[in-house]
Amino acid sequence: MAEWRQLTGDRIILNIKALPGASRSALAGIREGRLRVKVAAAPENGRANTELIAFLAKTLGCAKGDIVLQSGEKSRLKSAALPAVLWDKLEKIPKE
């Protein structure tokens, strides 16, 4: 099973499973090699992606511009790049 995050140079590649349409955005643990994120937005016109990035930025204490969606724009399975300095903050995410 792939690791849910990988350090590549000065970036972290984060494997995400987005769960859109939730009542509020929240972390939902790590399963099957992906960080599960409940997203309080519908998957229409990029709203869920925008909310996902805003939620991750707020949760990790970084700017929204620091998070780049690399793949999965129209999928629940996504990959995002973040600054490597956030590695320690990712350590605190509960596994389940």
Précis, in short:
With 96 residues, this protein is of the alpha+beta class.
Keywords:
2 helices, Conserved Hypothetical Protein Mth637, Chain: A, six-stranded mixed sheet, alpha+beta, 96 residues
Element-by-element helix/strand order: EEEEHEEH
Q: Supply Rg.
A: 12 Å
**Could you tell me the mean pLDDT?**
94
The structural class is: alpha+beta
What's the total count of β strands? Answer: 6
Which CATH architecture would you pick? 2-Layer Sandwich
- What's the CATH topology label? Conserved Hypothetical Protein Mth637, Chain: A
Walk me through the structure:
The structure is a single chain. The chain is α+β, with helices and mostly antiparallel strands and 96 residues long. It is built from 2 helices and 6 strands, in the order ββββαββα. Strands 1, 2, 3, 4, 5 and 6 form a 6-stranded mixed sheet that branches. A hairpin with a 5-residue loop joins β5 (68-71) and β6 (77-83). 26% of the residues are buried. The model has no long low-confidence stretch (mean pLDDT 94).
Q: How would the blueprint of this fold be written?
A:
Elements: E1 5-8, E2 11-20, E3 26-31, E4 34-39, H1 47-60, E5 68-71, E6 77-83, H2 87-91
Parallel strand pairs: 2-4
Antiparallel strand pairs: 1-2, 2-6, 3-4, 5-6
